[in-house]
Amino acid sequence: MEKKKKQQEQKRMEAKKKQKRTLEGVPEELIMAIITRLPPNSLVRFKCVSKPWNTLISSPSFIKLHLNQAISSIRSQRLMVSSSLNSIQSIDYEASEVSAINQIDIIAVANSDRFKIVGSCNGLICVADEENSYHSFILWNPCIREFKKLPLRFPLAENLKVSIGFGYDQSANDYKVVRCTFDETLGSHLVFEIHSMKSNTQKVIRRYFSDPRITFSDHNSKKVVFVDGVLYLKANSCSFRRDNLEYDDAVLGLDLKDEKLEIVQLPDDHVNFDEDPELELGIFRGCLGAIQCYFGTMIHIWALKNDGMKQSWIKLMRIMELQSVPDSKDLIPVCFMRNGEVLMTCTKKEESASKSVFRKLKVHGLRPWFHEITYTQTLVSPKLL
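-> structure tokens emitted (385 positions)
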């Protein structure tokens, strides 16, 4: 028995020496360049290889390197689709096989249908209690299966329209949760409650818009998009022009660095919402995107470019001749794919579009009112925030 133990120990020592010899002579920069491109689930397993590997992969510097690599790579992007917390699926939308759709278990994180996914940033998913005006929050990284209940309680806001945003202030290395409430009885009075996770403090910003008057509808009161340090919120505007009231879409931008609010100018060639459905917001090629469907016949997609001095809208794509597509008015673009295709969602099951134009990626088990959000696969741990 003793001899067998010695032989096993000798084999382990030889294996360690062989592993060391294999890595000797390989530049550290090359090793880092390789492993920072690996998906988080592989890196989590590699932490069990040895203590040095565990120390390296768990270090803040490595997690930051991996994060920067993941943000710049479309291979690290995923689409999360949910209609309830009992049906959440992660989709590798670049893959061609249905096996790229994975069911995600979040029941241990939030065991109630009251919770809803409200935002994502750097691989962290913000989940909020939809009841009671979103006063309970959880941060969750599905890739490393870690979550954290936030010590955050917004005051109850009954009978108000509520929007929730989640983003990151890079200048202060601070993640922030923002709640915007709108009271129709007070006109264009908006209240922004900003919670800093770094300092565990809250700041309240109150704004009143007279011209244009800013309002929210039930349709757009949940539209919040985070891009490059700014939370963008979908709204409506009402202006007095030539003694008449003119209604249009509106976009508000809240800079998380200086916590200032501004109205973002819309594309010049967009159509007033009195004539057509409202604009939708999204993220396209790393920029704020605006989407508008014209009576189910065509779709226009713009991206907001910022050169540091000014902002301008660039037309990215115009999808024409949708009349032949059943229920084309229900098609909503989500993101661009690596090959130039546009990923779109459609709530209708009876869809028979031409295969030469469309290809389907069916997600089973969803209700018609499903919610989708893109996120990045990272190693960022909510427990360390």
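Confidence is low (pLDDT under 50) at residues 350-356.
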